Amino acid sequence: MRGILLCLLFTGLSQAAEVYLNPSPSLPSYLTPSHASSVISRHLRLEAFEPLQGNEQIATKFLNEPFVGEGDKNGLLLSIDEADAKDVLPESLKPTFSLSNSPDITSFSSLISTYLHRAPQAYTHIFSLPSYSAPVPRLLDIFSVSSSATESFLTEISGLVSFLESDDDGLASDKFGAFELTGLGEIASAYGRSSEQYTLAAETLRAVLLGALDKKDINLVVLTFNGARANAPSRRQPPQSPLPPTIPQQPINSVSTCYTSESECGNATSACSGRGSCVSATKAGKTCFVCACAATKDEKGRTENWAGQACERKDVSGPFVLLAGTVVALLLLVVGSVGLLYGIGNQELPSVLTGGVTGGQKKD
């Protein structure tokens, strides 16, 4: 039963959907939704939920791939509109397989949520977009005019760069990230694909994806979909019957365990490890109790944030926002400088300036 949900979700995605895996195993060019979900789960080290079954040829070829067994790797799952993918995916990243045709049901948000729900069983550190509208630091505000589309894009870039740059904080392994990249499509809808805003955003996302491909410790999965079949708001709605309901958007540290009473929550988590309190929450339509982690101060007076179902580990995602902003800002500064120099390179200097460079007369 554990693999039924993903199989149904992939069935909903399979109309003209392409899947990119890096490193790329040798697989048939077309896979059924059930085989595709098993292969992707295996690639992301989540095969315990959905082992390769039903096709011994695919299972054997996949298990014999050189990158399988090279040691634990990090997992990164991305979804993006195929129209945007053409502008941002590096040429070196080729489609691994396509999904065979079936009725079109838009289920990408549910798919991302499903993998985020399973990831804590295999990974310690989980990265994704916040479930609330987080403010974007001014350093990341690269657009001259702010809008909901640009803010959405910057939030996605900030989260993705935080995942990639977390190696500097000792998280070189055992981390998982899943991101639904819709911000670029929103910019295209708001400003057009020939606009300066879209060009700038596409170049930025392309540079970030190139950085992801350069990291050999990441198993990358990119899912592309036909955004013309449904607009962005409809993609975020739960699919209709007969598919099961989607996993609700919740904080990452509360999806693993939800306790029936406040006392049970406190006993099971040692009062949230002394770093928070048990609060009521709604999960799958039922009210239960989870840990709401609070910030603490260390011996030097620095603020520490905590995460996990028992507030047992430090929340390391926040400190990367400044680093992410620095990386993106420097990249865009270089691109903007080159564009500025190119734009003024062919213009003649004013006569006031050129008159000052004529040969002078020597006086005795």
Automatic annotation (TrEMBL):
Q: Which InterPro entries match?
A: Archenteron_Induction-Rel, Vps3844_C
Task: Provide one Gene Ontology cellular component.
Answer: endoplasmic reticulum
Give the source species. Answer: Bondarzewia mesenterica
Record-linked Pfam families: Vps3844_C
| Keyword Transmembrane helix carried by entry | yes
Q: Where is the signal peptide?
A: 1-16
TM spans (from-to): 320-344
Q: What is the protein name for this chain?
A: Vacuolar sorting protein Vps3844 C-terminal domain-containing protein
